[in-house]
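U., I forgot to send this yesterday:
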Amino acid sequence: MNRVLVAGGAGYIGSHTVKELRKQGFEVVVFDNLSTGRREFVGDAELVVGDLENKSDVMGLFRSREISAVLHFASLIQVGESYVHPHKYYTQNLSSSLNLLEAMLEAGVKRFIFSSSAAVYGIPRSIPITEEHPLDPFNPYGQTKFFVERILQDYDRAYGLKFISLRYFNAAGADPEGRLGECHDPETHLIPNILLALLGKKERLEIFGTDFPTPDGTAVRDYIHVTDLAGAHILALRKLMAEPRSEFINLGTNKGYSVRDVVAKAEDITGRKVPIRELPRRKGDVPVLLASKDKAERLLGWRLSFSGLDSILETAWNWHRRSAR
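Result:
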């Protein structure tokens, strides 16, 4: 049986993963409340509209369908908002995950792919960050991912639930075929904000911090194309189904670009000038975040196909131009 449940499958990373799952022959059930996801992103997969915070919605889903594994993307993701509304983040991100895990255990489903984050590491003590780096999240969003990972370890020990937690760095880009892309409201990610400014949808790009200890003073980040990210989920799922052993795995490229690097490349690709406003650093921003990809390559056989900065920006620009019409 290869029917998998994708919680949050109508969102940015979830929908790209759903598309790859369907291409590889999986039967997919998407569960999403469509608060931030888009119905049209689901494609030909089955969509069940419901809320993970409603336990009866989740239990009913598992009782009506045979599911072999779960991929969990559904969560609140805005770091800044998590500082202002920590109760909202702790309540929603933790209760939704606990409800999902309870329904899985009742149904006897014990394979789980978790959408985690580099935020579990906190301020880097060494670069590139490996999976052995100490965990010390410093914002409520990162804490929620950290807590779910701890819950998963306890559920593995107590109930035999096997998981792979994928710790993302900076997902970016868009479906090379142009069907899917990145759209959040509000938009907080650098690359879509650059493109929205180029399209006149934003007055200017705001750069937070120009005094970091980096070559040009702006923050350096590890950008990974969303299609490569989706591919890693399929590899992790196949690995977990074949060899049920829990793992934590980084997903990044071990290559960093500063904010100014990304702006310059976007201007080169589009032939347009990005209007910029420079502002002070945001609370919690760190100078450099880079991931070691060694474990993902070794354990999953993962290889990057789209994660060059040119490919990331070209696919995102193509999608944003089409969606702006």
